[in-house]
Write a structure and sequence with these properties.
heterodimer, A: mainly alpha, B: mainly alpha, about 0% strand
Chain lengths: ~250, ~190
């Protein structure tokens, strides 16, 4: 049963249980800088312990022993210095592992570890091609290739002879539609061919999406904003007597 | 910069210098805990190297768990030491050998203090032996409290032990040490 301040004076056993929290509270008073809020003995117990120890030589000895033990524990078991060769070995191994790590293992969020896509493309082309030119070229390529890709992926066979006839339901010159030349339920391709085409379509779409995203961002930042849109707007504003507001908006 | 900020910096940048700063902050605490648990400098150095390399390889996981680096390191150190102690015990038991003598180098992290070492050499030797002979978890909690000077809550987090259990174990561990030292040295220890 916990001791209360209005209980009778505590006995030796109870007082000895309070010695450690008593010394904790003396060494690291709660509420002080660096103090441990969990190392505390309430004032009533502290006063009861001190009063008991003043009259009890055994508990006084126990208290002195506890103090000495704490002191000796800190002196007799000091914090030891780690040998420098341990740290050297750790840093050497870590450096070697960092050097061996694949680029894919590096954090993607770090701006310096990721090469710009136009630099990768320029390197692939042998270098010497400016990034804005590459970005613009990619945009033009996408504009040209996009519809073709769409038609070849989404509407396979759209550009093959007879495709127009398929779309309109018209007959081929021999009098039968292309659909009629294949068995029912198995139009133009086998299931394996369809599966392969779907896989290729997925890969192409993922690639186009990736390139398109990077290219769109780069073209916006590197070609249109500084190089085409703003000068053009300024020129138009200058020729056509644009408003001051428009000129301010387009100021680099 | 706090340990948590250094950890975040090391993970985000992948720069070795940030990891080096973490190592410099924590190496003595890891090494000391291993030394006092194992009582062997060579083994403690091996454990320290192993634990610090685990820190390097687990930086992203630690960061994503919003981990307390110090608590993680000391927990891993303690577990690694326990593995070694189990292996050592079974090996020595199989060979019928006695316990090894205490071989801890007492060079403190902040430089040697010959006066302090001389004054406490006798009691210190008994104390280290008494600490090594304590059962777990009393030994770990006492080392974390007295050597590492950790607060009760930090010990609770490091050992994943309830706060009140930490307090009770530290209290019991100290009492066992006092009894043990009184047996060995008599009342001289209280002077």
């Amino acid at each position: 049963m916990p001791w209360r301040a209005d209980d009778s004076a505590p006995g030796c056993d109870r007082v000895r249980d309070w010695i450690d929290p008593y010394l904790d509270a003396l060494e690291e008073p709660a509420g002080t800088a660096g103090g441990d809020p969990d190392a505390a003995l309430d004032p009533a117990r502290r006063e009861a312990l001190e009063a008991h120890a003043a009259d009890c030589p055994d508990c006084r000895t126990e208290l002195a022993l506890a103090r000495r033990l704490r002191r000796e524990l800190r002196h007799g078991l000091p914090l030891l210095s780690c040998p420098p060769e341990v740290t050297d070995a750790v840093l050497r191994i870590a450096a070697a592992e960092a050097a061996e790590a694949e680029p894919a293992d590096r954090p993607a969020s770090h701006p310096d570890t990721r090469e710009h896509w136009t630099d990768r493309l320029a390197a692939w082309l042998g270098g010497g091609v400016p990034r804005p030119a590459l970005a613009a070229a990619a945009l033009v390529l996408l504009a040209l290739a996009g519809p073709l890709l769409y038609r070849s992926v989404i509407e396979p066979g759209a550009d093959t002879p007879g495709a127009a006839a398929d779309r309109t339901g018209a007959e081929s010159p021999d009098g039968a539609s292309d659909l009629d030349s294949h068995p029912p339920g198995d139009a133009a391709f086998t299931e394996a061919e369809i599966a392969e085409a779907e896989e290729q379509a997925r890969m192409i779409l993922a690639y186009v999406a990736s390139v398109g995203r990077d290219a769109g961002r780069a073209v916006q930042e590197e070609v249109f904003d500084p190089g085409i849109v703003r000068p053009t707007r300024q020129a138009v504003a200058g020729i056509g007597g644009g408003t001051d507001e428009a000129a301010r908006r387009n100021r680099p | 910069m706090t340990s948590k900020q250094k950890l975040r910096s090391a993970v985000c940048s992948g720069v070795l210098g940030d990891f080096q700063a973490l190592v410099e902050d924590h190496r003595d605490r890891v090494y000391s805990l291993a030394c006092y648990l194992l009582g062997d400098r060579e083994e403690a150095a091996d454990v320290t190297q192993d634990v610090l390399l685990r820190l390097w390889r687990n930086l992203p996981e630690l960061d994503s768990e919003d981990g307390n680096v110090s608590a993680w390191l000391l927990r891993v150190t303690r577990n690694r030491c326990f593995d070694l102690m189990r292996k050592r015990r079974s090996r020595r038991s199989a060979l019928g050998l006695a316990e090894e003598p205490d071989s801890i180098d007492l060079t403190p992290a902040d430089g040697p203090d010959p006066e302090r070492l001389a004054s406490s050499s006798d009691l210190g030797r008994h104390l280290r032996r008494a600490v090594r002979e304590l059962d777990e978890p009393y030994r770990s909690v006492l080392i974390l409290r007295e050597v590492q000077e950790m607060k009760y809550r930090e010990i609770s987090e490091t050992l994943e032990m309830p706060l009140n259990t930490v307090k009770v174990n530290i209290h019991r561990g100290r009492k066992m040490l006092r009894d043990r030292l009184q047996e060995v040295m008599g009342h001289a220890v209280a002077c």
